[in-house]
Amino acid sequence: MNILTKRKIRNKVALSLSVFAAVIGLFWLFFILWDVFRHGMSFITMDLFTKDPVPPGFQGGGLRNAFVGQILITLVAMVIGIPFGILGGTFLSEYGRHSRLGRFISTLSDIMVSVPSIVIGTFVYAIMVKPIGHFNGWAGGVALAIIMIPVVIRTTEDMMSLVPWSLREAAFALGAPYYKVITQVVYRGAATGIFTGILLSIARVAGETAPLLFTSFNNSFFTTNLSESTPSLTVTIFQYAMGPYDDWHGMAWAAALVITVAILLVTVAGRLLIKWRYRS
Amino acid sequence: MKLKTIFFSLLLLAISPALMAGNTINGAGATFPYPVYSAWAFNYFRTTGVRVNYQSIGSGGGVRQIKNRTVDFGASDAPVKPAELKAGNLLQFPAIIGGVVPVVNVKGLSAGRLKLTGEALAEIFLGEIKKWNDPRIEALNKGLNLPDSEITVVHRSDGSGTTAIFTTYLSACSGDWSRKVGTGKSVNWPVGIGGKGNEGVANYVKRVKNSIGYVEFAYAKQSRMCYVKLKNKSGRFVEPSFESFKDAAAGARWNPDTGYYLWLVDAPGDGSWPIAGASFILLGKEKSAVNRKVVDFFEWAFKNGDETARKLIYVPLPESLKRSIRDYWKKNGID
Amino acid sequence: MSNQNVTDYKDKLFRVVTFGAALVVLVVIVGIFASLVEQSLPAIRKFGFFRFLTTPTWDPVHEVFGAASSLYGTIVTTVLAMIIAIPVSIGIAIFMTELCPNFLKGAMGTAIELLAAIPSIIYGMWGLFTLAPIMGNTVEPFLQHTIGKVPYLGSLFSGTPLGIDILTASTVLSIMIIPFMASIARDTFTLTPQVLRESAYGIGATRWEVIRNVVLPYSKGGVFGGMVIAMGRALGETMAVAFVLGNKHQIAHSLLDASATITVTLANEFTEADSNMYMASLFYLALILFVMSFLTLAAAKFILKERAKS
Q1: Which of A1, B120, B164, C203 could connect to B78 by a Cys-Cys bridge, CB 3.0–4.6 Å?
Q2: Of B197, B233, B232, B230, which Cα lies nearest the Cα of B216?
Q3: Which residue in A220, A235, A237, A249 has the most chain B C-beta atoms within 10 A of its own C-beta, making it the best mutation to test that interface?
Q4: Which residues of chain A are at the B interface, by a Cβ-Cβ cutoff of 8 Å?
Q5: CA separation (Å) from C49 to C65, C68, C170, C273, C284?
Q6: Which residues of chain B lie closer than 8 angstroms to C272, CB-CB?
Q7: Phi/psi at A132 (nearest 5 deg)?
Q8: Degrees (nearest 5) of the Cα angle B126, B128, B132?
């Protein structure tokens, strides 16, 4: 066999392997999505959203408490996480741009994005559950906010750095102070990007389970009082999927379907937005 | 602007429960009585509007949480020793009686077909009997066609009163077990995989072929699992049932002065199921206002909950014991 | 106060507020470390550092705790997941940058992003209900009958195939990190200057040779950094493995044995621990995990930064 054919064969083999890898990747995606859809679909009923759980052995029931609890906890995370994230990102991209501390915090945020979320759960347990004396929804919200902040900080920083420096200089030339330049020029320029970052960070925290296990815990009743233990979809999925009852499994699949679809929609919306905004 | 709206609506949400406060009792602990407590709580909420939020996290957690007063009541299937009750300033009383049953997942076996003794069970959980067609199992089950496959043991991964009851039974039957492993809410298991809660063990046994585990009977019943017959102290093979649990509890001598500390395993009597146990409620002695609410719930359950319990194959407490518990409440400043 | 002063004041205020917000990250990280140390002090005092790390016992009855078995589970599942994920994700990245027709590129990118966005609990649940039976009934018996017969290597596949074991957990974990690694690898591949590629083609190189000798060497630092970040993630993943690992504190020799990772131990036992020493030991585990993943991620950042400099 001459060397040229050998090279050609090697080329074919290597490239086919990479196509194969891509097919495997897509295969998992469709396998998982299809499975969640197949199992969950038949349990999506009106009752799922409007009724509270019933004990095993009783008929009917839904997961209204978990849906509402999940939304409340996520809202708390947003109310804390978004302002801190945007302001912190502002500092990193503007005032702290060249300072060592700014660079250091930026790197720390990058690391914190990937800190194990269950560790954040144990931390919030130590500072908010143990001293208060019982599990509570606020702690769950704080745990999610801690996960959210570095994500928002980093996207805000990146998006604001993309705004051309000349834009700021033009505003300075008109005599505007720095904070005005930031709030009226830079924010405006980076708005879509920051918004997308926020969307993606919401998608990230809405599917978190581990940090909620020891903070907001669970509750079999409907509650809007975040100072008691608060149910969430993800913890409920964990409990129901690990349980032995068929209707629990069904509910867990249905909840999984709802949360997956919601998160994927938010993610896709974020991607489209970015694409539309930064097309040029 | 948008943030402001979100903030205020959140504030509103935070305040609104104050209007309906005081209507929740938080309890946590044993997974063993979870089916019956949650059924009681469901009916209690329907009739009185009071929520009893009972989370089944395991007896170990129940005891710790009531010690730290992070819940209004704790629940444990392993009775807490009188000295420990005193140290934690706790009250303790039984609320329901049930049975722990070994469950298996072996192809071709249906519920109640397989017969085992306490010794054989201990040897399986020690990893000494490794296969289903071991002569020690076949000797007890003449005529059953047992497969030549490895046994997978499923046990609890969390601190559990069910485990305490089960290991107390194994220790009573097998010297080897009590020497090598001992008893406790969680033990150092020689073999097997761990499931979280009665739910987790039931789920794993259902999913793993040729496995054996132990769960509270309601879990076996509701998820249609294959339970086994056990040889009791009188040498008879009995099925787990309402009657055999009741027989096991019949001879019990309850003593309020020790916080009703009592094990019901390996009980005498022809019809007794050998692994029965009571599930206990723990209260913080000093929290009289909260205790009143908790006791109200159990008083309601003692009066109206027997039927629900029976349906789930739990044994309601005998009337004499209920009277004794009411006196116990009164004596400790709750009525 | 003059107008100028007011503006200065506002500017300063804004600066301070944003600085405070940025400082939160630092405060939280220091806070996590400090509070975990504080909570685990009783266990640190009782078991020390090296003894805790090397003791495989996890015995709540006698209050003897050691991290070795959970640490072992964490490391084994992570390493195995990396072994599965690295070739697949590099393959995906090559496909996306070098082979994929343009009209498919966007769709493929979105698909990978979506795979990364699926919550980990969905992976875990799917692992238990769908993947575990497939592994236990088909894949694992097959492996036993093939690789299982090879001397030495075979012992990795001994035991009863249950589907609830290290192999299944690592598979789920690898599916979770593949999209993450693939998108990092793709991003670094695209950074390879087009000129380099074209000159290689110009001297008659095949596509694979261009990838092998130009693209891969050019981006190896970035890809390596990405792998380490993915590893940091895998170390700390909880829900994807909690369902299918079997929660058994042991140093397992077979991939078909149950095991426990630090994260799974925390998830299962944290709310249930009944003694102070038990609780402190769990916090100690959390501390070890935190330090481990922090160092891994910091190393990855360092590698990427060095690369950006050169």
Answers
A1: B164
A2: B197
A3: A220
A4: 54-58, 72, 75-76, 78-79, 82-83, 129, 133-135, 217-221, 223-229, 239, 242-246
A5: 12, 11, 28, 21, 10
A6: 57-58, 60-61, 64, 158-159
A7: -75, -30
A8: 110
Q: Do the bridges between strand B229-231 and strand C64-65 make them parallel or antiparallel, or are there none, so unpaired? A: unpaired
B255 interfaces chain A, CB cutoff of 8 Å: no
Three-class DSSP category at B154:
strand
Residue with tokens 């920051």: A194
Closest residue to B57, CB basis, from C57, C247, C272: C272
Span B281-295, mean pLDDT?
91
| ipTM value greater than 0.90 | yes
Place of tokens 């769990």: C282
3-state SS, residue C58 = strand
Residue B18 has pLDDT above 50, yes or no: no
Question: DSSP class of residue B80?
Answer: P
Cα four-point dihedral sign A229, A232, A234, A238: positive
Per the CB < 8 A criterion, the answer to whether C70 and C261 are in contact is yes
Residue type, C120: S
Q: Which candidate, A26, B159, A242, places its Cα nearest to that of C175?
A: A26
CB pairs under 8 A between A and C: 270
Instruction: State the Cα–Cα distance between residues C20 and C22, nearest whole angstrom.
Output: 5
Of B301, B306, B317, nearest in space to B41 by CA: B301
DSSP state of A115: S
- Give the tokens for residue C113: 């992003």
Chain B interface includes C225 (CB < 8 A) = no
Residues B97 and B260: their CA atoms lie apart, in Å, by 13
Q: What does pTM read for this prediction?
A: 0.90
**Could you read off the pLDDT of C27-46 as tens digits, one per residue?**
999 999 999 999 999 999 99
Give the whole-angstrom CA distance, residue A121 versus residue A76: 16
pLDDT band at B17 (very low <50, low <70, confident <90, very high): very low
Does residue B103 contact residue B215 with C-beta atoms inside 8 Å?
yes
Q: Mark the ranges of chain A whose per-residue pLDDT is less than 70.
A: 1, 279-280
DSSP bridge partners of C113? none
Of A78, A219, A242, Cβ closest to residue B196: A242
The pLDDT tens digits along chain C (310 residues) read 567 788 888 889 999 999 999 999 999 999 999 999 999 999 999 999 999 999 998 887 778 899 999 999 999 999 999 999 999 999 999 999 888 888 888 888 888 888 999 999 999 999 999 999 999 999 999 999 998 888 888 888 888 888 889 999 999 999 999 999 999 999 899 888 989 889 999 998 898 999 999 999 989 888 998 899 899 989 999 999 999 998 888 888 899 988 999 999 999 888 777 788 999 999 999 999 999 999 999 998 888 888 777 6
Give the nearest partner residue to C126 out of A19, A32, A234, using CB atoms: A32
Amino acid in position C172: V
Cα separation, B261 vs B77, in Å, equals: 11
Show which of residues 164-203 on chain C sit within 8 Å of chain B, judged by CB atoms: 164
d(CA C117, CA C119) in angstroms, rounded, equals 6
Residue type, B244: S
- E strands in chain C: 58-59, 64-65
User: CA-CA distance, B69 to B71, in Å (whole number)?
Assistant: 5
The pLDDT tens digits for C98-129 are: 888 888 888 888 888 889 999 999 999 999 99
Long-range contacts for C9-13 (Cβ within 8 Å, ≥24 apart)? C10/A177, C10/A179, C11/A177, C11/A178, C11/A179, C13/A179
Q: Comparing C-alpha atoms, which of C258, C200, C199 is closest to residue C76? A: C258
Q: Cα(A16)–Cα(C207) distance, rounded to whole angstroms?
A: 12
